[in-house]
């Protein structure tokens, strides 16, 4: 099975679902070569942050890699992961995959009924509100100016893209059964992928791992950690980082011995850097040299816009790279998809294996150099199960 995701947190969410279903999962990021070597290969891209021309060029590169390693039946097991809030490029990437792999039609289902995101009479709702009446109408790159899918994607129907209603997870399962004919490309959100994989609609080839075998508790020879709260949509600091707090479920995952000091020192980004400065030495992280563990946070909220977002993730990535020059930690926890992408690109990681789904959308990967990397969407609460 091949999954192509238009952003890294969406890729991690899908990888976690496949892993929890018992599959071996290979996670490819950035410029890494895409090949079919595991039961499930998830290809993380940054297409949502690119121009459409750049995104399509990157998709063509990925498709070329995949076709050069094509195996029998692979065409039937291609999935395009897109945003459940309709952001990103949809129609043209679907068209590229349909033509490349010979699909006759596509089902595009961005609905996530399990999270209150549904489609009724062709209108997309989040909770009880049409999406254009939510904060997604203010998205700087993909604002929701209409909630009618046919208006949002006016050329979809002419290209053989079906956009069905879905009020519940049962609806999603029914849609999967209806179009699971080997000639239909599936594209959409996590509920659709879950119905295909966990519901048995797709018979994924290859061996299945022991569900417990991939779990990894800590790096034996290095208990250090960098935690990056890199999203400006971040909740307040998680309870396990507040003074004298105890969070048993988190400790069970990381083990109290993972931290040399608990909690790790917290280092907020200085205002001068947040306001546009580029000198990362202004960010006081001297404690990392002593403890080899640290929490980087962005406590400011008064600037918005794409340029600000690019600046912040660039600064954070450079700061993390400078810390890695002092000591390579056993684990990096990154909150915020754009920040995670920037850090992974700076470090140069391209291939990972999935070792644990911490919570829905929160996944721990292991890089080739054995470093553990946990990815968490910025807008998700800090819940560790």
Radius of gyration: 21 Å
Q: Can you tell me the residue ranges where pLDDT is under 50 for at least 5 consecutive residues?
A: 210-220, 243-258
Succession of helices and strands? EHEEHEHEEEEHEHEHEHEHHEHEHEEE
The global form is globular
The largest β sheet comes out as: 14 strands, mixed
Number of strands: 17
Output mean pLDDT: 84
Please tally the helical runs, counting DSSP H or I stretches of 4 or more residues.
Answer: 11
Q: Considering DSSP H and I runs of 4 or more, what fraction of the residues is helical?
A: 25-40%
Span between N and C termini?
A: 27 Å
Strand order of the largest sheet: 9-5-10-4-1-3-2-15-16-17-14-11-13-12
Which structural class matches the secondary elements? alpha/beta
Strand percentage: 15-25%
Description:
The strands form two sheets. Strands 9-5-10-4-1-3-2-15-16-17-14-11-13-12 form a 14-stranded mixed sheet, sandwiched between helices. Strands 6-7-8 form a three-stranded antiparallel sheet, with no helix packed on it. The chain is globular and about 60 Å long. The chain has helices at 8-20, 52-68, 91-101, 149-152, 169-179, 190-197, 248-254, 271-274, 286-291, 306-326, 337-347, and strands at residues 2-5, 25-29, 40-44, 78-81, 105-109, 117-120, 123-126, 129-130, 161-162, 184-188, 225-229, 266-268, 293-297, 331-335, 351-359, 362-367, 372-376. It contains eleven helices and 17 strands. By secondary structure, it is an alpha/beta fold. The two termini are 27 Å apart.
